[in-house]
Specification:
This is Transcription factor & chromatin remodeling ARID family. One of its GO terms (molecular function) is DNA binding. The protein is mostly helical and 165 residues long. Helix content is 68%, strand content 2%. The chain has nine helices and two strands; from the N terminus they run ααααββααααα. Strand 1 and strand 2 form a beta hairpin. Helix 2 packs antiparallel against helix 4 and helix 7 crosses helix 8. The N and C termini lie far apart (63 Å). The relative contact order is 0.09.
């Protein structure tokens, strides 16, 4: 099986594993192998790519119960991602879905932020083709220019546009 022989030597290897996680049937079929590879990927990314050696993998709670990083990733992804889970205050539910207590929700949020958030951001950034990234940044610059121009007009005239009243 390709998955068992997978090694992490560059970020493309991480991307390949993260791409596999889109197939839920595949994840369920090879769950235990994927869990080990997922932790291996997180450890490689934190240590080799980011230079962070102070975050132990696997992750354990204060009661010595292991936090399954793959399950945490999958549950948060299913609920819409980190931002939605946080803004809707769903971390207690995430914790309960993983077999932990509701009170452990804040701990799950911290674990996600410390172990998964950066790699997911990096994955999304690296998977956007270069020309799309350029168009997006150009669009942001144009929006910033428009916002700055509108800000100058409202400050200089002392009037707010009709739709802001």
């Amino acid at each position: 099986m390709i998955l068992q022989s997978m090694k992490f030597k560059e970020f493309q290897d991480c991307k390949a594993l993260l791409d596999m996680l889109d197939e839920s049937e595949y994840v369920m079929k090879y769950k235990y192998v994927i869990e080990g590879k997922f932790e291996e990927m997180i450890e490689w990314f934190l240590q080799v790519k980011m230079g962070i050696y102070t975050r132990p993998v696997p992750v354990y709670m204060s009661n010595n119960k292991k936090v399954n990083l793959l399950e945490l990733y999958m549950v948060v992804k299913r609920e819409g991602g980190h931002r939605i889970v946080t803004s809707n205050n769903l971390w207690a539910m995430v914790s309960k879905d993983m077999g932990h207590n509701y009170e452990d929700g804040e701990y799950m949020r911290i674990v996600y932020a410390m172990y998964l958030d950066v790699i997911i951001y990096y994955y999304k950034f690296k998977t956007i083709p270069g020309n799309v990234r350029e168009n997006q940044s150009r669009g942001v610059a144009e929006n910033d220019d428009r916002a700055a121009e509108e800000g100058r007009r409202t400050r200089s005239t002392g009037c707010m546009p009709d739709d802001d009243r």
